Each structure stands twice: as C-alpha cells, then as structure tokens.
Model the fold of this input.
Amino acid sequence: MYAQMIKTAGTGVKDRDEMSEEERKFQDRIDAGEKIEPKDWMPDDYRATLIRQIGQHAHSEIVGTLPEGNWVTRAPTLERKAILLAKVQDEAGHGLYLYCAAETLGISRDELTEDLLSGKMKYSSIFNYPTLNWADIGAVGWLVDGAAIMNQVPLQRTSFGPYSRAMIRICKEESFHQRQGYDAIRACAEGTPAQKKMAQDAMNRFWYPALMMFGPSDTDSVHSAQSMAWKIKINTNDELRQKFVDQTVPQAEYLGLTIPDPNLKWNEERGHYDFSQPDWSEFFNVIKGNGPCNVDRMAARNKAWDDGEWVREGMLAHARKKAAAKVAAE
Amino acid sequence: MTRQDALFQFLLRMGDNTLILGHRISEWCGIAPVLEEDIALANTALDFIGQTQFWLGYAGEVEGKDQDADRLAFHRDAWDFRNVLLCEMPNGDFGQTIMRQFLFDAWHSIFLGRLLKSSDPRVAEIAEKASKEVAYHLERSAGTVVALGDGTEESHARMQAALDYLYPYVGEMFLSDEVDQQMAEAGIAPDPATLREEYDALVARVMAEATLNIPENRYAHKGGRDGYMHTEHLGHLLCEMQWLQRAYPDAKW
Done:
C-alpha cells in the first residue's frame, strides 16, 4: 500500500448515542454502501484523514518514479525501456488523479506539494530503498506493485467517491505493472548465472521492505477501527500482509528464487504461510528519515521543484497575458 | 554505394534520431518542472522508442546481417551512429530541452509528411504511424516555446539562450549527400535540402509569437548524420544506454 501509518483524525469510533444527528446520517450512508461525494456533508476528521491518506498515496506515486527512473536510461532492450517508461508515465498519472481527488476535499496540489517538500507529509517507506541492479526493476513491479495492489483492490470499494473511482482506474494499470515486473525478473531468473544473481540479490533486498509496506500490526488500533468504520480502510495490515505472502511464495518458487526467511513455511492448520516479521526498528528509522535514500529522494524532489520554478512562472505569465488580450479583444 | 546500402543508412538516420533524442528526453524521468510535463516528456520518449523499434528493425532487415533493432541500438559504437548532432545535445535546463524538441519536431513533422508518399511501402507505413504522434509533439513543443518565450523576463532570456545555443545544429538536418540523392531518385525520401524553406517559415512563425530572435548566423555544425564527427556528448550517452548489453553480452533480457 502506498499509504502507511496514516494517523486517523479524531479519538476513535463513536457510539451512536455520542454522534450528532449529521454524524449518524453520515455513518448510515456509509453502512448502506453509499458513496460520499465532495459536496456532501462529512465529519471534519473524515475529511482530514482522507487528505492525509490520498495525499500520501499521491506523493508515493511521484517519489516512486525516482527509483524506477534510475534505470530508464540503462534499460537493456528497447522493449524493456518502453515498458518502464510507460509504467513511470502511468505512475505520474496516478499521482495526478490522486491530487485531483484530494483537491475535491479542499486542499490544493501546491499545498500538498509544499507539505511533501518540507517533510511534513510522508510517502511510502519503500521508495527510500535503492534500485541497484536491473532485476530490481522487476522486483519493484512484482513485489512493490504487488503489495500496493493488495491494499488498492479493496479500496476500490472505499466510501469516498473520487478516491474509489481513482482506485478503480489505478488498479487496472497496477496489475499490468505487476505482471510486467514479474516478467522482467523472470527473464533474469531464467537467464545466465549473472542474471540469476541479480534476481536473487533483488529478492534479498526487497522482500522485507515489501512486507513493511503494509505497516506494523494495527489489529488493536483505535485509529484503524475508525478508518475501517468509515470504509477508508478495508482490511487490517496483518490481513493484507498475510494475503501478500500467500500469493507471492508460489510465484517465487516458480522462479527458483529463495525468499530470505528461514521461518517461512506452509501452516496446514491455518491454511496460510508462517513467516518472519520484518525488522520494525528499521521501518521506524526509515519513516523518521534514516532510510538508505530518504535524503537523496527529498533532495531530488526539491531540486526538481526549485529548478522548475521559472518554467511554472513563465507558463502562468503567458497564460495571464493571453487571458488579458482576450478580454481586451471582447 | 548500392541502393541497399543507401537505404540502410537512411533508416539508421531515422532510427538513430529517435533513439538518441528519445533517450535524452527519458533522462527527465521524475524531475520535470510540473507533473503534467513529467507525463508529457515520458510520453514523447515512449513514442520515440516505439518509432526506433520500427526504423531500426527495418534497417536490420535491409542490412541482412542478422542484426535486430536491439542489436543495432546497443552494440554499435559512436562512429556508427547516424543521428543529427542536435539529437545528442545535452538536456541543459528545461528551456534547452524544449527548444531542442521544437527545432527537431518542426523538421520531423515536415519530413515525415513527405515520407507518407514514399515509394517504399514499409517507410510509408512507419511514417504514417509516426506522423500522428509527431503532429502532437510539434503542437506541444511549439506551444511551450511560445509560452516560455513570451512568459517572464527570465523565461524569455532562458529561451533565447537555448535558441542561440542550438541554432547552429539546425542546418545539419537539411544537408544532402549521396544517401539522400539515392533516396530522392528512388522516390523513397525527399532531398532534405528542399525542405528548408518550409521549415524556416514554420520556425519563424513560432519564434515571432514567442518573441524570440532567430540568430542571423546560419553556420551549421555537422558530422552526425554521416558519423564523421559526433559531439563528445554521444559517447557518454552510449556508455549509459549500452552498459548492460555490453557488460552481459550473452544475456537475454
């Protein structure tokens, strides 16, 4: 998932008798499966939480283009390069829909961008890990997009209409990316000894960061309970992580890649794989800014924004002159 | 030079232009001035990579030495590249990138327009597909050059500097040599020299609207389209682009 550790606004789920008349009606609509649209009444905490969640998702799409862009100019064939460029373009497009969805809640894209650049808002921890060999691009598509889809598929049913519609479109593209990523790492896993080494190296480095994408266990979190009652979160983090592991293990086996977890084994009784948790202290460090690439990613985004200022100002100045000329002509 | 050799060289010129310029644009991935530009630049790069697959794929067939588009893209050294120098010039700031794009798009759209009537059906077919994409590239790059030329004092100064820097690389697109003469005689492609007037009119119109001055000096740097002397920039681009293929020549990707 590209939104992690979203702090749900408010103090947790209210009992019906604690709710105002408006809140009760709002909750009834959600319980009935109705979509909430931008002009509808909504609790301030619902609005604030969605802005955080959609904003963080949008930022993740944008920052996520950097580790992939790192290999665009070194892609090994014209076809792989075209696939990667198309993927990065899709991701920038996802960022765009998501910023638009957030704008319907009363915040501008520029405000959200400022909050990203100042470090006030976060993006997914996964994009603070480096892409070091070509097979990493396969691993990002397969494991990172694969983990993202686990959360995004249920979010197609989320209560906020613009978010739900954005997710429906995004999921179609993400599942395509996941298959393309799997195909890219498959070519490495089935290739020369050096390519196999790339694929295994990518697996070794991306497995635990991919598991971290779901966030720490939130089964007992009052905040998550509120987000689930509002249907802006559909499953617990642990449910999604388990689903991801169960789906991914056979795919790794097919490739002949070893998942770097000695405790990974099928549990007949549970009907699921048992697996080791990632190192959560590493996760919290990455969130705090101590990941391998945090500083470089933010520097790259800030530089792009600062270098582009004259372009944005030039475009706006031209648009204003044109508008003024049109008014003068009328 | 046989007709087949000339056709091979012509196809390399078309495919290397799109390969090298597509690569340059792809260097912008994730760092454009605004999200819409990130999308547009990736889209343009993607179009060029697609066109490269067609041109170089056909070039390999014509050459008949079992080289496919990837082999040609990733296993030739700088002296075998046939792109005009303009395409390999560095990105510079966004203004330089978009000015380079416009100066190329204007030529590309006129040239592809002529190729629609090529006597070689494969060339006509590729041109038909590419010209739809390039019509859009030209509309966008011209619009952006106008906006930034006419925008603020700073954007105007940057666009004028970009035009001054790149204009000496325009002339090469209109040079003719034996390859061009053979292509013209066979009705495969026009002699580039015959297109200059139309190009100049188009560029003059856009630059006037952009309030930019076209340099009077028409000196033309050359050496890209015949491979005699590329710029120093091309070698570095190839180092990056070809590294994986060269480092692991036995691998299938």
Notes: Chain A touches chain B through 52 residues (CB under 8 Å). Chain A has 13 helices and two strands. Strands of chain A lie at 265-267, 272-274. The mean pLDDT of chain A is 95.
